Amino acid sequence: MQCDDVTWSILNKGQCAYKAWTKPKMFCKNEMNLTGLCNRASCPLANSQYATVREENGVCYLYAKVVERSHYPRRLWEKTKLSKDMNKALEQISDHLLHWSEYVRHKCKARLIRIHQYLIRMRKMAVRGNQKKLIPIGRKVERREKRREEKALVAAKLDHAIEKELLARLKQGTYGDVYNFRQEAFEQMLENTEKELEIEQEVERDDPDTGETQFVADFDSSDDEEEDMEDGGGDGHWSPQETDSENEEEWQHEEEEEDSDDEEEDDDGEDEPMEVEEPPKKKIKKEVKKKKVVKKAADGKKKKLKKRAHVEIEYEEEVEPRQRVKA
Amino acid sequence: MAPKKTKKSKKDDSMIDFVEEEVTGDVDEGEFEEAEDIVEDSDEDEPPKKKKKVVKKEIKQELELTDEKLQELLAKYEASKTTATKTKDDFKHLPKSQRGKALKKALRKDKRARQEERSKIRDELGESAPQKEVPKTIESMREYDPTMVDEQDDEVEHDEANDEFAPYFNRETSPKVMITMTPKAKITTFKFCYELQKCIPNAEIFTRKNVLLKTIIEQAKEREFTDLLVVHEDRKKPNGIIFCHLPEGPTAYFKINSLTFTQDLKKFGEATSHHPEVILNNFNTRLGHNIARMLACLFPHDPKFTGRRVVTFHNQRDYIFFRHHRYEFKKEGTKAALLELGPRFTLRLKWLQKGTFDAKWGEFEWVLKRHEMETSRRRFFL
Questions:
Q1: What CATH number is associated with residue A102?
Q2: What is the DSSP string of B341-382?
Q3: In a domain, A35, yes or no
Q4: Do B314 and B320 contact (CB within 8 A), yes or no?
Q5: How far apart are CA B250 and CA A277, in angstroms?
Q6: Per-residue 3-state assignment (H helix, E strand, C coil) for A67-79
Q7: Where is the composition biased (Acidic residues) (chain A) (predicted)?
Q8: What is the DSSP string of A254-275?
Q9: Which residue in A50, B67, B157, B280 has its CB near the most CB atoms, within 10 A?
Q10: A181 lies in a domain?
C-alpha cells in the first residue's frame, strides 16, 4: 500500500523525526537522504523509487530502492559497491540508474563527487600530519585560574619588586660608569661632610682666641712676648696650627669636587663621538649640562647643611644620658 | 620624637638588667658596671660605691613597679591576640538571615581594634615588646619542594653548565628569534607578535602560511635562529605560546592570560631600540631555573644601560608576569621611577618537552596535570 503523496503530506505538514529546523532552509537528518534537504523530491521516506550514494570507511556504495521491494524491509535497499576510480563510478551510477529520473541521477553523481573530494582532503591531511587537536576548556578551571592569577598579581607587588631589583643592581655596580651617584662615592661624600662638620665646630671654639692674639701681636709688646711672637709668626707664615691644616683639608675637598666636575665634563666629551651628527646642538647641551653640574653641586651643599643639623641632634643625644647618670 | 623613644627604650634596658640581678640574689659589681658604663669610668674609690648602693635601691623600687606593669602589659598583649569581644549571641535581636553578616562585620571591626590596642601596648613596652608574628602568606607557607635550588649547588651548576642553554651563557651564540603564529591568524595575534618584536631585539616575524611546525623548525635551524615563538590563538585572540629553543633545546608551552596591549595601558611610553635588561624573579626550583634560563636566552648578552629598558619575568605562584618598563633612578639612586612601555601579559607553563617540538613522539619533561598535581593551593612548581 505504498502511496507517496499521502506519506509526504503527513510528513510535510505533521510530525517527522528527521526534520531539522534551521533558519534559511529545512534540513533532513535521515542518513539515506540524497541532498540533505527536506522536500518532496529528496525525501527518502516519501519516495518509493529512490537512490543515494553513501561512504563507509572510505568506500562508496550506491543505494537504490524500488517500489517492488517496499514490503521487504530487510532487502529494501540494493547496495552496489562503486569503483575507487571516480570516472568509472560515475559510469556505474549512470548504468544503474539508466531509466530513473534525471534529478536522482544527477544528484547521485554530485554526491559522489563531493564524497571523493572530502576523501582526498582527509587523506592529504592524514599524510601531512598537521591535524589540530581540540581540547576542551574547563569553564570552572578557567575561572579558578583567573582568580588565582589576580591574587598572585596582588601578592607579587610587581613595581616594588622591579624597583628593588634595579636598585640592588645599581648598588652592586652593574651599571658601571653610567651613573654618577655610585653608592660608595655617595657614602664617602657623607663621611667627608661629617668630618667637615666636626672640624668646623672646633674652629668655632678656636676662633675667638686667635682673634685676640692677633690684636696683641700688632699693638701690645709688653706682657707675654714669647707667646706673642709665636702667634704672630703663626699668622705670618705657614704654621702647624689645627685651624690652618683643617682649612687645607677643606681646600682639598673643594679641589676634589672640582675634579669630579671635570670628570663629568670629560664624560660629556666621551659622549661627543656618539652625537657627531649634530655639532651645533652639542655645545648648547654641554652648557646646559655644566649648569646642571653647578646645580648639583649646590644641591650637595644644601644637603650638607641638612646633614649638619642631623648630626647636631645626635650629639645632644649622646650627651644627655651621661648627665643623667652623673646626677 | 624619635630620640625620646630611644631614651625610653634605654631606660627599659637598664631596668631589665637590674631585674635579672635581683633574681640571682647577690649583685655583682661587674655586671652593674656593664649596665652603666659611665659610672664605671668615673672612679673606683670607696665613697662613690656607697652612692651607687643608694642609687640602686631607688631604681629597684621603680623597677618592681615596672616589672609588674610589664607582666601586666604582656598578659594584656597575649589576651588581645585571642579573645574576640563579640559573639553570635550579641546579634539575637537581628533576623536570622542577617546575623552571620553582622557578626562577620563586627568581628572584622573588633580585630582591627585589637590590632590597634596591641600596637599601643607595643609602644608602651618599647624594646621589651614580644616579637611580631610573621604573617602567614601562601608564599611563606609554600609546600616543600625537594628540587628547590640553593645558591651553591655543585650538581645544579654542573647540569647548567652542560645543558642546551650553555652556549648562550658561554657567549658562543647570540640570540636570533623567529616569531610566527597559527595558520590564518587574525589581526590581534599579529598585533601581539609585533608587540613581542618590540620587546625582543633581533626578532623577526614570519606569517605561518600553513607550513608545518617541524619544517619551520628545520628552516629556522638552517638560518641559525636560536629561538622560535609560535603564538596560538583562540576566538581571534592569542591564548598560548609555543617556545622552542633551537637547535636542540627544550620546547615549552605557555598559556597566555590577561593580555593588555600597549595602547590599552593607562600610561605608556614609546619603546626604544636599546637592548633591554632582563629581570627574572622568583624562579626557585630546578624547573623554574630551566624556564628562567630559557627566557633569558631570548635577549642579547650586553644590555645597553643607557637605554634604561627593562623586561621583567616575575614568577608568583606559578604565574609568570611579563612587564616591560623604562626606569629612571631618582633621588641620588635611592629610588627608581618606572614607565611602562610594552604589553602586559601573564604566562602559565603547561608543559615542557625535551628536544624540539614533537606532539606525537616527544618526550615530556614536565606536564601540568590538574588532578595529580594541583592537590594544594600552596604547591608550586616554578
A1: 3.30.390.110
A2: -S-EEEEEEEEEEESS--TTTPEEEEE--HHHHTT-TT----
A3: yes
A4: yes
A5: 45
A6: HHHCCCHHHCEEE
A7: 200-210, 220-233, 243-277
A8: HHHHHHHHHHHHHHHHHHGGGG
A9: A50
A10: no
Tell me the CA distances in angstroms from A130 to A124, A172, B212, one per residue in order.
Answer: 10, 50, 7
Q: Please count the CA atoms within 13 angstroms of the CA of B315 that sit on its side-chain side.
A: 19
Check if the interface score ipTM surpasses 0.90: no
**What are the grid coordinates assigned to B156, written together?**
645544579
Range of the domain at A80: 4-128
| Residues in A touching B277 (Cβ below 8 Å) | 169
Q: Are B352 and B366 in contact (CB under 8 A)?
A: yes
Q: Please choose, from the candidates A36, A37, A45, A35, the residue with its C-alpha nearest in 3D space to the C-alpha of residue A8.
A: A45
CB A19 within 8 A of CB A30: no
Contacts of A320 in chain B (CB under 8 A): 7
Q: What is the residue-wise DSSP string for B61-105?
A: HHHHHHHHHHHHHHHHHHHHHH--S--GGGGTTS-HHHHHHHHHH
Cβ pair A10, A45 in contact under 8 A: no
Asked if B312 lies within 8 A of A145 by C-beta distance, the reply is no
Residue A159 grid cell: 613595581
First to last CA, chain B: 46
Distance from CA of B336 to the nearest CA of A (A): 6
Q: Is residue A288 part of a domain?
A: no
Number of independent structural domains in chain A: 1
Rounded CA-CA distance B359/B226 in Å is 20
Contact B321, B287 (CB under 8 A): no
Taking an 8 Å cut-off on Cβ atoms, the answer to whether B323 and A128 are in contact is no
Nearest to B298 by CA among B311, B316, B315, B289: B311
Q: Do B335 and A326 touch (CB under 8 A)?
A: no
| A-B contacts (CB, under 8 Å) | 102
Q: B238 burial class (0-12, 13-18, 19+ CB within 10 angstroms)? A: buried
**CB contact at 8 A, B189 and B216:** no
Q: What DSSP state is assigned to residue A246?
A: H
Neighbours of B298 (CB within 10 A): 23
Fold of the domain built from segment(s) B154-373: Rossmann fold (3.40.50)
CA–CA dist B235, B175 (Å, integer): 32
* Domain boundaries, given as residue ranges, for chain B: 41-135, 154-373
Q: Does B137 touch chain A (CB under 8 A)?
A: yes
**pTM for this entry:** 0.59
CA distance B278 to B295: 9
Spatial contact of B312 and B325, defined as CB atoms under 8 Å apart: yes
By CA distance, what is A186's nearest residue in B? B332
Cα–Cα distance for residue pair B120/B114, rounded to 1 Å: 10
CB of A216 within 8 A of CB of A231?
Answer: yes
Residue of B3, B7, B277 with shortest CB distance to A313: B3
Please say whether the beta carbons of B250 and B352 come within 8 A. yes
Do B323 and A158 lie within an 8 Å CB cutoff? yes
What is the rounded distance in angstroms from the CA atom of residue B319 to the CA atom of residue A165? 19
b/e sequence A108-138, b meaning 16+ C-beta within 10 Å: bbebbeebbeebeeeeeeeeeeeeeeeeeee
Tens digit of each residue's pLDDT, chain A (327 residues): 578 899 999 998 888 999 988 888 889 999 999 999 999 999 999 999 999 999 999 999 999 999 999 889 899 999 999 999 999 999 999 999 999 999 999 999 999 999 999 999 999 888 876 677 788 888 999 999 999 999 999 999 999 999 999 989 888 888 877 777 655 666 776 777 777 777 766 655 555 555 555 555 555 444 444 444 444 444 445 444 444 444 444 444 444 444 444 444 444 434 434 433 444 444 444 444 455 544 444 454 444 444 454 444 444 444 444 545 444
Rounded Cα distance, A46 and A48, in Å: 6
